[in-house]
Structures are given as C-alpha cells and as structure tokens.
C-alpha cells in the first residue's frame, strides 16, 4: 500500500526540515545523521515488500548484501557509528502504517517483556524506552499511549526495531505506527489522518525529541 511510504516520507521530511536551521553546528550534524536514515525499507517500493517478494522488515537481523542492499548498507553504517566511532544512535524509529488499530502509537523493546529468558534475566531500565512515548502523549493529540507495547516477541526478532535494539544496543528503538483507520480520541476523533495531520505528528515528534534531550537522567513517568 502506497500509504505506508507516504506516511514515512512525510514524517521524515518534516523532521529533516525541523533540523535544517541547525545544520551549521557540528553537534547537530551528528544528530541529523540519525534522521536521514528514516525511510529505509520503503525506498524504491510502494510498500515494504521488495522485488524478491520478501517482507523487508523481516530482514534486519541478517540482511543480504545483494538481495537487501539498502538495509545491508544502512545497518552497516549504524554498526560503524556504534562499534568504530563509539557514537551509537540515541533513538531509532521505523515509521509504519497500521491497518487495524486507530491513532498513532509506538512499539518499543523491554527486557522484562521479552520472549527470551536471557533478556528477562538482565536488569530492565523502563525509563529508557518509556520516556519518548510519554512525551509524545503530552504533545501529540493523535498519540495513544495505552496502545503502545514493549513486548519483544520471537517472531519479531528480524524486524528493524528488535534487531537494532538487540544487536546495536539502542534502548530507544521503536516502530511508530500511524493508523490507516483514523483516530478515535480527542480533537481528531472520527477523522482520517491526512497529509497535514502527518506533518503535525512529525512536528510533535521533533518536540518530544527536544524535550527528551533536555530531560534529567532521573526522569520518571510521573513527572
């Protein structure tokens, strides 16, 4: 469905525009790198299936250089930043469209909610993955915190969200879902999400990122 690609492109575009006025600052150039990796597995397609008829969001754990070149090299760049430059992505967000649930919400990764006993045996740090969803709830009328989930399911191990979380150690690794079915809450109740709504969600996301950057290390969800 072409709507998936449109959602990702609109959000990525508004995020890039939001940061354009900072591009002369060296620290912000590094931040921009994160955003420029936005819409990866939809490049050249109208949905997330490639020419090999594979779901490209199930190829992130071990992408093939020939069959999945965009994912292979994008992940390679992030691995280089993480392991060689020692500058891992602070936030990774994969934009999707959702065909059943309404509103906008995030899927994240929690050790305590993982299928893996090895994950559950390690200490969980909820503040790491809860801060962005809670900030989005505050600033975005389309965002529905109760719909967010932080389960790590075995059949999602090869998705971008889980692969980047597990293999690169990015605790704030998410899938952002925007509904094809519109909203059922607040001022947007009963409306479908059009281009202007998606741009506004992109702006809300930028605001949440800025708020997260300024948050204290001891931030908690009750603040």
Describe this structure in words.
The chain is built from 7 helices and 3 strands, in the order H-H-H-E-E-H-H-H-E-H. It has helices at residues 2-19, 26-35, 69-84, 117-120, 126-139, 160-168, 195-214, and strands at 92-98, 104-107, 173-179. Helix 1 (2-19) crosses helix 7 (195-214) and helix 5 crosses helix 7 (195-214). A 3-stranded mixed beta sheet has the order 1-3-2. With 223 residues, the chain is mainly alpha-helical.
Please describe the topology of this protein.
Blueprint: H1 2-19, H2 26-35, H3 69-84, E1 92-98, E2 104-107, H4 117-120, H5 126-139, H6 160-168, E3 173-179, H7 195-214
Parallel strand pairs: 1-3
Antiparallel strand pairs: 2-3
Organism: Vespula squamosa (Southern yellow jacket)
Protein name: Cytosolic carboxypeptidase 1-like isoform X1
Cofactor: Zn(2+)
In short:
Its cofactor is Zn(2+). The chain is mainly alpha-helical and 223 residues long.
Sheet with the most strands?
3 strands, mixed
Helix content: 40-55%
Q: How would you state the average pLDDT, rounded?
A: 81
Query: Which structural class do the helices and strands define?
Result: mainly alpha
**For the terminal residues, how far apart are their CA atoms?**
39 Å
| Lateral arrangement of strands in the main beta sheet | 1-3-2
Q: Hey, roughly how much beta strand do the residues contain?
A: 5-15%
In DSSP terms, counting alpha (H) and pi (I) runs of 4 or more, how many helices? 7
What sort of overall outline do the alpha carbons produce when their principal axes are compared? Answer: globular
- Rg over CA atoms, rounded to whole Å, is 17 Å
Helix-strand pattern, N to C? HHHEEHHHEH
| Number of separate strands | 3
Low-confidence stretches: 1-12, 29-39
């Amino acid at each position: 469905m072409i709507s998936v690609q449109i959602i990702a492109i609109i959000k990525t575009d508004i995020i890039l525009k939001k940061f354009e006025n900072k591009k002369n600052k060296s620290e912000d150039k590094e931040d921009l790198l994160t955003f420029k990796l936005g819409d990866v597995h939809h490049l050249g397609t109208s949905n997330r299936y490639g020419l090999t008829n594979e779901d490209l969001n199930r190829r992130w754990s071990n992408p093939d250089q020939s069959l999945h070149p965009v994912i292979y090299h994008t992940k390679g760049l992030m691995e280089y930043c993480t392991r060689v430059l020692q500058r891992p992505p602070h936030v990774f967000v994969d934009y999707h469209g959702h065909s059943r649930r309404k509103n906008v919400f995030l899927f994240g990764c929690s050790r305590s909610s993982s299928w893996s006993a090895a994950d559950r045996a390690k200490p969980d740090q909820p503040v790491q993955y809860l801060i962005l969803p809670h900030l989005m709830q505050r600033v975005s009328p389309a965002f529905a915190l109760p719909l967010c989930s932080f389960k790590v399911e075995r059949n999602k191990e090869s998705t971008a969200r889980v692969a980047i979380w597990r293999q690169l150690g990015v605790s704030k690794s998410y899938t952002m879902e925007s509904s094809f079915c519109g909203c059922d809450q607040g001022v947007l109740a009963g409306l479908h999400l059009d281009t202007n709504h998606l741009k506004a969600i992109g702006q809300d996301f930028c605001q949440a990122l800025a708020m997260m950057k300024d948050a204290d290390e001891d931030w908690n969800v009750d603040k």
